[in-house]
Amino acid sequence: MQPAGLVVSPAFSHVAIVPAGAATIYVGGQNGVDDTGAVVSDDVVEQSVRTIDNVSIALEAAGASLADVVQWTVLLVADADLGAAYGAIAPRLATSGAPPLVTAARVAGLGVPGALIEVSAIAAVVPG
């Protein structure tokens, strides 16, 4: 939703309403790591792509997809290239309807040594 009085952006919404009866799926912070937990690269673009791949894997395991995400939280290490990271993930953050909610922050560091990005998501799936 884009309420009157707030900036209109094609990249994010300000409000999301989850329909009654929808299953809400929470995906904890994912990083650009492979299935052994090793950071895939020291490149923010490669880490960003793998991070979204990991979110997608988690969502699919719960019966959802990236298109079902209503809110994203994106954390980037302070000196990581914001433009490169968002350029790599922005097309996959979009949904088929209104753009999702997005919260982003620059942080001093992340829990996974060498990680430059961490992404969590909240999705809603209407049965049917």
TrEMBL record:
Pfam family, any one: Ribonuc_L-PSP
Signal peptide: none
SUPFAM superfamilies (UniProt xref): YjgF-like
InterPro entries referenced in this protein's UniProt entry, alphabetically: RutC-like_sf (IPR035959), YjgF/YER057c/UK114 (IPR006175)
Family stated for the protein in its record: Belongs to the RutC family.
Name of protein: Aminoacrylate peracid reductase RutC
Organism: Oerskovia enterophila
